Structures are given as C-alpha cells and as structure tokens.
Amino acid sequence: MTDNIKLAELLFGDVTQTPEDLEERFPQRNLKEGVRVTRLAPSPTGFLHFGNLFTGTIAYKTAKTTDGIFYVRVEDTDQKRKIEGAIEVMLGGLKAFDVIADEGVVDEGVEKGDYGPYYQSHRKEIYHTVAKYLVEQGMAYPCFCTEDELNDLREKQEAEKCDNKGYYGKWAKCRDLTFEQQKALIEEGRTYTLRLRSPGSEEKRITFDDMIKGKIEMPENIQDVVLLKTDGIPTYHFAHAVDDHFMRTTHVIRGDEWISSVPLHIQLFKVCGYKVPKYAHVAPIMKEENGGKRKLSKRKDPEAAVTFYQEKGYPKESVNEYIMTLANSNFEDWRKTNKDADISAFPFNLKKMSVSGALFDMVKLNDVSKNIISLMKAEKVYAYAAEWAEKYDKEFFEIFSKDSAYGTAILNIDRETPKPRKDITCFDEVKDYVSYFYDEIYTPDYTMPENISKEDAKNILETYKNTYNQSDDKDIWFTRIKDMCEGLGFTPNVKEYKKNPDAFKGHVGDVSTVIRIAMTSRRNTPDLYSIMQLLGEERVMERIDNCINSL
Fold first, then answer.
1. Pairing mode, if any, of strands 490-491 and 506-507?
2. pLDDT at residue 19 in the model
3. Which of 61, 73, 57, 72 is closest to 36 using CA atoms?
4. CA atoms within 13 A on the CB side of 388
C-alpha cells in the first residue's frame, strides 16, 4: 500500500464509494448532440439582484435555444452567511420573470431531478469521495498551517516583494510532509484543511475560448488552494468542479468577476479527470453617472433589486423584452420584423452579447413596457393589475375587483386599435389611471385651461347638459358638441380658428376639454365618448352639476 493510499484511508476511512460509483450514479445525460445544459447557482445570502436575473435569463435562454436543460443549484456551503428565506425570494423572483428551472431546487426545500442533491450542503459525501481520490493520486494533501502561520507567510512574501503571493512551491510548508509526519499531526489532534497539489508552473500559460469574451490567455494556476475547509466543507472552487461534472453541465454562464478563477477551475477539472465545460462570462450591467459608467449597485439603485420590478408592477413580458435588448445587439431589429412573435422564438446567441457590459436605461425600460402593455388585451391588463393590487394595494383591490367587467371595459378604451394609447408603464400606475371611474378614489379638480374663463366653462357645461343624450352614437355625440360651439363664441372648425384666432374664444377642442375636465378632472384622457358611456348618464349629469357649482 502506497503512502498516498494510506493517507487517503487515514483522512477518509469512512468513504466507501469511488468516483466510478459516482459516474454510474450520475451518468451522462441522454441528450441530442449540441444540446446545452446550464445552471444558475445562487447563494442564500441576500436578495435577487437584477444582475442575477440577467445572468439567469442568459443561462436559461442558452439552454432553451438548443432544447436543453436549465437547473438551479444552491451553493449554501457557507452556513454562517445564510439568510433564512433568501432562496424562496430568489426562486420567486426568477419564476416571476419566467426563468423556471427544469430541475434542481424548484422551491424552498423542494428538489426535482436525478442529479441531486441540488443543495451543496447535502453533497458532502460526493465531495469527500472525489477528495479521497485526489489524495490517492497524490494530487491533494492535508495542510496543518494555522492562521498565524499563514499570516507570517504573507508578511514574508510582502517583504521579499514576491510577484506571486499565496501558498505554493517553497511557501507551501505542508506540501512535502511525509506520511509519518502527517499521521503524527493528525493523531495529535491538529486541525487541517485539504489542499490541491497544483501541477501548475509559473512559466506556463493557459488559453481558453470564452463564448462571450473570445480567446483569453492567462497564467497557469500554481496555488495549492484549499479544497476542503477544516470542517470538511468544500470551497466554492472545488464544489464547482465536482458539481458541474456530476450534474453534467455543458456551459458555465456566470459573472465576469470569475474570469480570474478560470485557470484554477480548468486545472481542477483536469486533475479530477473531468471534461472541461464551456465558459461564458457575462459583463456586469452598467449605469451612467456623471459622464462615466459604474456597475448597477444595490446600495445606490432601487432598480438593482428584482423586487423593485415586482413592487412597481412591471409585467414579466416587459422586463424580459428589455433584458433581451440588453443581452443581444440584434434583438430590436428582430423584433421590428417579428412584431407578434413570442420572445422564445428569438435566436439568442451568446456571441452577440456585450463584452464590456450593457448600459441600464430606465427610460428605455419604460418605453418598452408602455409598448408591451399597450398591445395586451384588456382582460390580461385587468388580470395583471388586479393581481398586483391584491398584493400591494388592498384598498384599491377591493374597489377594482368588485366588477371585473367594468374594470376591463375601462382598460379597453382606445385599446386594440392600429395605434393604441401607451399610458401605462407598470401596474402601480393603474389606480391613478382609472381613478376617475371610481367615486371612492376620485378627487375632483376643475382647474380650466388659461384660455377658458370660468364663465365660459359654466356656459359650455350648462348648454351641454341640455343637449347630452346617453343613447347617442359617437358621431351624433360629437356633432352635438360641434353644434354648441357657435352659440358660445367658439368655432367647430380647428383650422378656421388657427387662421383667425382673434375672431373666436376657442375651438371645438377647447369645448371638449371643458367637458373632459368636468368628467375626469384631466385634460388628457382616452376617448371621452367611451368614458362617458361607462360612467353612465346619472354620473355624467352629477359631474356636470358638481363642476358648475365649483366654478
């Protein structure tokens, strides 16, 4: 029995399975050639950042464009930083915007699929099986250095002005301990970590082809990094390699802050005997500030939290559409020629992503959202608005949900036309948008335009009150308004007014504005005839009287 085998038994005597057993337990996926398996691997340490949603969407799209598999793995090995309920919030945020896992952690404590457990904290035996194998191969060893010793090492490297700092080569104090020394220290009760015996060389470089950034060349990893901490829990680096291999990930899509770790990760895959996955490193979402750019920040930018979009009531269609404008430079051109196509039909391509980071633009998001909502059927807008109100504005929900047909009819005014109105950006605006239809939340404001005197406004309303007929169709309704104009000193012809403005008090548009203000307290609304039809004759008359009395 070699010293390596004896050391492996000493360290992992309780591990009975082998890497071959794991290969059998987690076989290659039975997928067509070219199909991609991607993942999102959140830590339960905080809220869902827009950047997480963006990267998750990219991973999801990458899998789905090849009929592949997207899964969620929870990287919860750092139990000290774990926040209760964080995973539920993250998964809820992903689902709210249609990033739905095919397998993995699909709900708090709920897993689906044959390649689990999908919580890293439940995979200790798998990591220890691979760790034992690496010790047997002479590729890993126990390190007994204390924190003080490691600090001393760093200070010496600083003093010697070492270009490469860390635990490697001559600085790796425990690398060349004999088996007898290792055994004695273990029996003495000394705590230890398990380190990689890196085969890297300071003279060598590696090259890898990033699917977003292109070809990248970097120095080979020489560090004897920690694989297992003193409590036997793996580091992110080791767990990442083991999990992505046994979960059969083909494409690792993650933030570009991980690029510096790629040499180590590739080395870990190779020393374990695994095929290296493809890497795609996503640049962070940027924001313009003071003429420069910075990363979207959860401290400075409310829109950095995915909950912001849920609380404001942006529909998932709007957020997803906007994400695609950030993700692929050709998306907007595709949308122009495929106006009615489902977003899933877009041929998403990692190679068309921004290398330096897309710029977040709230104005652009709002424009996208207004357009998306304007094209929705009224029933869908009502359902979304009611769902939002039930969660975020109970008082409005009680009013709005009493009569769904009435609410839908309100939202259907000027909808489903060649040029639908684009008044609603997100569903927290619906309450204000429809408020004049509900007496409980309507606050009258009869401020007239500067060119209309109070006396003229009263005359218009008193005349109109005597001519209004609820049963009129739209053409007759408007003809009645035009017929009123001359007797009130206004012209029914806008062009005539523009030619000779001094000859009239105003035009038919001004007369309509007075009626509009009496009905809605607004100068700009959807179709006034439709509004009055929905309000009904009794309320129309009541509002005319109220406005006259106020004036």
1. parallel
2. 97
3. 61
4. 22
Tell me: pLDDT of 84 over 90: no
Structure tokens at 278: 């493809």
Per residue, the 3-state secondary structure of 219-283, as one string, reads ECCCCCCEEECCCCCECHHHHHHHHHHHCCCCEEEEEHHHHHHHHHHHHHHHHCCCCCCEEEEEC
What's 291-311 look like in SS3? CEEEECCCCCCHHHEHHHHHH
Q: Are 284 and 311 in contact (CB under 8 A)?
A: no
**Calpha distance 380→378 (Å, rounded):** 5
Write out the residue limits of the CATH 1.10.10.350 domain(s) in the chain: 454-550
State what percent of residues in the chain have pLDDT above 70. 100
Select 3-16+124-282's CATH number: 3.40.50.700, 3.40.50.150, 3.40.50.620, 3.40.440.10. Answer: 3.40.50.620
Portions of the chain given CATH number 3.40.50.620: 3-16+124-282
Q: What are phi and psi of 207, to 5 degrees?
A: -125, 135
Q: pLDDT tens for residues 322-374?
A: 999 999 999 999 999 999 899 999 999 999 999 988 899 999 999 999 999 99
The number of helices, as runs of H, and strands, as runs of E, in the chain is 23, 15
For residue 291, the tally of other CB atoms under 10 A from its CB is 5
Percentage of the chain modeled with pLDDT above 90: 87
Residue with tokens 């493809």: 278
Helical packing angle, 528-535 and 404-411, nearest 10°: 170
- The continuous run of DSSP H or E covering 207 comes out as strand 205-210
Give the end-to-end CA distance of the chain in Å, rounded to a whole number.
103
Which token pair is 325? Answer: 């404008």
2: alpha, beta or left? (left if phi > 0; alpha if psi -120 to 50): beta
Q: Residue 255 forms beta bridges with which residues?
A: 282
CA 364/CA 322 separation, integer angstroms:
8
Indicate the CATH number of 454-550 among 1.10.10.350, 3.40.50.2000, 3.30.2400.10, 3.40.50.1820. 1.10.10.350
Distance CA 149, CA 147 (A): 5
Cβ-based burial of 500 (10 A; exposed 0-12, middle 13-18, buried ≥19): exposed
In 17-176, at which residue ranges do the beta strands (DSSP E only) sit? 37-40, 69-72, 103-107, 110-112, 140-143
**What number of other Cβ atoms are within 10 A of residue 148's Cβ?**
8
Averaged pLDDT, 301-312? 93
pLDDT digits (tens, 9 = 90+) for 96-141: 999 999 999 998 889 999 999 999 999 999 999 999 999 999 999 9
pLDDT of residue 47: 75
**pLDDT value for 166:** 95
Question: Please, are residues 105 and 119 in contact by the beta-carbon 8 Å criterion?
Answer: yes
Q: What tokens were used for 497?
A: 């007014």
Could you tell me whether strands 37-40 and 69-72 are parallel, antiparallel, or unpaired per DSSP bridges?
parallel
